[in-house]
């Protein structure tokens, strides 16, 4: 059996680094008042780094008194000390380092072709420096988008701003944001912001990026043909990424049409025809994911699945190019409003198309239900002998996910007794059917064998509610197709 003694090896190599008397490389790091010399051994540097293997070849090195002199002014002594210690010992401690130092280490490890170190630092920023990355996302984005191998951190940054893009757009740094970053943002289908806001900020960015416009010539009334052509050239890669089908008729005429000259003829003509006659989209992109939504219980992916179910589509159906645009407005959240019957009834009162999501305690399981007729005070209905009332719907369904990111074990049960779609009873906050999915106080009764709904959830359990959210389902198709 092979034995390993990595700890002793690391300790001995650390002593060689700290007290070297046979070094043959002097590396000068930093610039101005922040310069430091490091002593190292070419054989170790070349063995551990492809960068040094090439840089310390006979074709590149400069020698003085048989000593290799190497300069890295673009790295600070603090960063290079961590790099060198990693090269010699394979050890790294980032717990006391600032987010900026860790980001600089990521850039250095990429330049020095230290792949293992690069992957570790990238993961560390995502997992341990979450708050710092989000607080400095434009600075981080501008840095990581220069690194071809940093896709994971790039995607993480874009994901972190997806749900709340307004601070990104309205920040002072936005007019100078890197072109590739903005392209990466606009290519996403899941941005939770009105498309007209994206258009407004894209125009502002384009004006600032176009020579001859910006502060010196920001009044469109004074623009000539050349000014519009210059702006068109600046934005030629961006215009096709705008989801014009997600912009209302009024906003199109007020905010898009004035910039008709920067939009190619084929796209503009299709936008006009779309607004006149609701013709199918062929050139334009469809609305982004067809959904504006923010939940503490499920992610955007599961929300899209629920929207597909509402539209009687398969769970993983890809949004058609003329589908309605949805906005789910939160009207009740248990952690904010209280988890009890009274709070639910006060906030979820009325015949309003609604979606309820429930996270239960002691498990990752999530339940929910969609009601095209809301939950209570629904007007006229069929009164049953014992004081509860049923309401009719052919579209209702209940569902479950194994966790907030489940797309493999999800289950849906559609209503089978349409006259029992919703039951209103004084002891319950809501009830899908005859006890198929019921909230009473802070308890959730999931008895899917009641025969009001399909028995696909396969559960007959009482859970304690950890969090519950109710959204009104607003279809904005009429705003998009006029």
UniProtKB/TrEMBL annotation:
Residues 23-96 form the BTB domain. InterPro entries: BACK, BTB-POZ/Galectin-3-binding, BTB/POZ_dom, SKP1/BTB/POZ_sf, TLDc_dom. Pfam families: BACK (PF07707), BTB (PF00651), TLD (PF07534). Residues 296-474 form the TLDc domain. It comes from the Eukaryota. PANTHER family: BTB DOMAIN-CONTAINING PROTEIN-RELATED (PTHR24410:SF23), HL07962P-RELATED (PTHR24410). This is Serine-enriched protein. It comes from Rhizophagus irregularis (strain DAOM 197198w) (Glomus intraradices). The lineage of its organism: Eukaryota, Fungi, Fungi incertae sedis, Mucoromycota, Glomeromycotina.
């Amino acid at each position: 059996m092979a034995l390993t003694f990595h700890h002793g090896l690391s300790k001995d190599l650390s002593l060689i680094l700290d007290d070297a008397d046979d070094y043959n490389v002097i590396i000068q790091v930093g610039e101005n008042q922040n310069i430091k010399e490091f002593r190292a051994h070419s054989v170790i540097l070349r063995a551990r780094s492809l960068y040094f293997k090439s840089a310390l070849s006979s074709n590149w090195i400069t020698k003085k008194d048989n000593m290799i002199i190497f300069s890295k002014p673009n790295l600070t002594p603090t960063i290079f000390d961590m790099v060198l210690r990693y090269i010699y010992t394979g050890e790294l401690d980032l717990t006391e380092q600032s987010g900026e130092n860790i980001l600089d280490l990521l850039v250095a490890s990429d330049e020095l072709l230290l792949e293992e170190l690069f992957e570790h630092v990238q993961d560390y920023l995502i997992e341990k420096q979450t708050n710092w990355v989000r607080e400095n996302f434009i600075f981080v984005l501008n840095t990581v988008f220069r690194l071809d191998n940093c896709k994971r951190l790039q995607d993480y940054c874009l994901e972190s701003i997806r749900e709340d893009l307004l601070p990104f757009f309205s920040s002072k740094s936005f007019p100078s944001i890197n072109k590739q970053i903005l392209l990466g943002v606009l290519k996403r289908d899941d941005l939770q912001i009105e498309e007209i806001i994206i258009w407004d900020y894209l125009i502002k960015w384009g004006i600032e990026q176009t020579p001859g416009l910006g502060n010196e010539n920001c009044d469109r009334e004074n623009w000539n043909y050349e000014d519009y052509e210059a702006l068109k050239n600046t934005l030629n890669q961006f215009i096709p990424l705008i989801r014009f089908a997600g912009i209302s008729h009024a906003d199109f005429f007020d905010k898009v049409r004035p910039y008709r000259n920067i939009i190619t003829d084929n796209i503009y003509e299709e936008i006009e025809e779309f607004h006149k006659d609701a013709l199918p989209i062929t050139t334009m992109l469809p609305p982004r994911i067809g959904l504006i939504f923010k939940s503490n219980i499920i992610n955007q992916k599961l929300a899209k699945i629920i929207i597909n179910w509402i539209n009687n589509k398969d769970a993983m159906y890809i949004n058609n190019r003329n589908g309605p645009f949805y906005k789910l407005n939160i009207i009740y959240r248990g952690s904010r409003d209280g988890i009890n019957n009274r709070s639910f009834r006060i906030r979820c009162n009325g015949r309003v198309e609604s979606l309820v999501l429930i996270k239960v305690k002691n498990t990752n399981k999530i339940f929910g239900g969609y009601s095209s007729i809301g939950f209570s005070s629904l007007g006229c209905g069929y009164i049953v002998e014992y004081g509860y009332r049923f309401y009719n719907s052919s579209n209702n369904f209940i569902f479950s996910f194994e966790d907030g990111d489940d797309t493999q074990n999800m289950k849906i049960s559609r209503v089978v007794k349409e006259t029992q779609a919703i039951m209103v009873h004084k002891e319950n906050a809501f009830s899908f059917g005859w006890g198929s999915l019921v909230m009473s106080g802070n308890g959730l009764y999931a008895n899917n064998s009641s025969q009001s709904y399909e028995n696909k959830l396969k559960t007959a359990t009482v859970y304690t509610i950890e969090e519950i959210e109710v959204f009104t389902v607003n279809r904005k198709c009429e705003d998009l197709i006029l």
